[in-house]
Give the backbone structure.
Amino acid sequence: MYGKFKEHLQNELLEIKNAGLFKEERIITSPQDAVIKVSSGEEVLNFCANNYLGLSNHPELIGAAKETMDNRGFGMSSVRFICGTQDIHKTLEKKIAEFFGTDDTILYAAAFDANGGVFEPLLTSEDAIISDSLNHASIIDGVRLCKAQRYRYNNADMEDLEQQLKAAQSQRFRIIVSDGVFSMDGNVAPVDKMLELANKYDAMVMIDECHSAGVVGKTGRGVTELFNVRGELDIITGTLGKAFGGAVGGFTTGRKEIIEMLRQRSRPYLFSNSLPPSVIGAGIRMFDMMSETTELQDRLHRNTDHFIKEMKSAGFDIKPTSSAICAVMLYDAKLSQEFAAKLLSEGIYVIGFYYPVVPKGEARIRVQLSAAHEARHLDKAIKAFKKVGKELGVI
Ligand SMILES: *Cc1c(COP(=O)(O)O)cnc(C)c1O
């Protein structure tokens, strides 16, 4: 039976390879950190992880994970509503709500599940979801699983959003949905204007804070801190897999009744395993650290500002950003790959992105800054960018 299907897959895989879109995985043989060891044996500086606060290999979190594993075991062997909820799961949910200034939180195995399971339990075909064109794949999938009417507006384009809100006035309920920070440009959704429009056109607002939580706002409280609108969003989704430690886990936090309904009806919550105690224990420690000090945010913001300033003064074309994502624009796809390869041989690990991940003719290198980067790491990266930039005639 498999023969014909095998041939079919082989052909499709070949097509992916021929189009230059085959994803190869680089093997890391050390913990995730500012400096990583790769399987060829070299050490490289890592500028392509979502390790914004440098917590992926933080001793405090490792310690908390070990301690919780000793006290509460390895796994839960259950979904939450059967026998998968420990007191620590409730504690972490409460801490996340305190962090964001929301009523309550529901944990998921991943943010992909949080977004996948948020719309269908809340909205029906009588309702409308109005979604940013650059929203994450998990939001797109979540919208697909829901019967609500779909509207799309151009990335962060508030005039277009207003048009879509007008078009959706005949629906019963409306919700505007957007990433907080868009991962390819690093721009922040204009949440203040979105809330104004939501008010005017009677809509709710949901923001996916995966790339913004822990990062934007003076103390890393995310977009509601940046725009001074704490408590005004109806739904926030986020991940424990980026700034918040980098292990695994997602959450939805927001209005009390919304979270209550998700606990009753959200399928990835009801039918998928509970997060393991070690991840929960480390998560609790992490949010405690966030409330004790803003040292990591301060360092991240300093690093980001410094890197961007130096890159701009070297003559690089940098996309406007309000996050820890810095898109170095090269426009040409081949150039972006050549540039990234040359940087790697200088010991700098970054990724060059090109169509279809970004629009045609907008190839770039995405640099992700981290609180784990030290001044000498940044200097080495900037120096390498300048060297390769000159070699390839970019600056
Ligand atoms: C990374 C990311 C997700 C998925 O997070 P996981 O917890 O890894 O599933 C969802 N939304 C956005 C915007 C992301 O960047």
